[in-house]
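Hey, can you fold this?
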Amino acid sequence: MAEPTRFVVAVVDDDPRALESLADLLEAAGYDVRSYSSASALCECGGLHELDCLISDIGLSSMDGIELRRVAQLERPDLPVILVTGHPELQAKYASMMEPERYFEKPFDGPLLVAAVRRAVRTRVR
């Protein structure tokens, strides 16, 4: 019997500690994680096409998480995107375009984020 395919989750964060922490959390939950320190690093390698879920910090330099979300939706309308931020004031600014279950403020509850990823990949059509 073939081993079940692990879901692939990309994490984009320009804070190395946050990036490593998120990757560790998701790997411990059984996901195959791809880590990127910028949105352009993800886009330039064509990584959007191999993903089951994308987690991005909003406050990235150059291309921010909101713009990355827009690019991802254009290229992969079926790709679930979860946004995280360490700046709560951004929630009010972007609240109308975010699904509450796919938006987390740092520091976030790890098990709640993992549960959101689990829901996101289960609802995505493979």
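Oh, and this one too while you're at it.
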Amino acid sequence: MLDEELTNEDLAQLGTTRESLAESLFAALVTQGRDQGIESVQMLTNQHRMHPAIGQLVSSVFYGGKLTHAVNVQEREHGLPWLERPVAWFSTAKLSRHLETRHGQSFYNRAEIQGISHLLHRMERSYRERGERREVAVITPYNAQIVELLAEVTPASDFWQALSIEVATIDAFQGRDRDIVLYSTVRSNKEGTLGFLRDRRRLNVALSRAREALLIVGDIWTLERGRAGPEGNPYQELVRYLRNHPEDCLIEDLDLEVPLG
């Protein structure tokens, strides 16, 4: 991710700001169209990708409840007997070594990496037993986390027979989808610093890539109580939604001792 690797001094020399880099080409075109009085954007309200539970979360948190769903629950069953809901947050907050580690301008989080590896192994075992295959994406905002995840998970390994795994940044995954998405949030610190996790657009992308199941892995304490920017902390609204919809959403502490079977 380019903007995480550039220092403020680098940006100043280039004559730009971190906020300017965060604006996508699409957003720039929309702004230009509005400035010229062109009706440039029409909201698509009927989504065909996500399990209705995931779609309703995205609709409520980002679109004022305006999305409708062209798929039903049966079409998007994930088939994992140990995953009770299609949306789940596995929190690392109570693990003994859950804090982030800085690497240059980026960050990684070993607790999340171990947790994601554990969850992927559980999925692999379950889908092998069912004789099924799934496409899985592990996405994260930070390049340092990508490097560590690739070393731990090794998607090209012959071990993965039931899962096809891709590890990528959120930005690289925009416009794409997979059966199951694991979102690694990375940030976990005593100061409640979120960095560019405060960006609502990136969070929207992260939560809307999954067809069947969305698993968030991260420190719910840091994310929910994190210091907000000018637009507020979007994770507060997300966590509130998860707590208020237990019929579709699950929040539980990550347990690395759970058997893989």
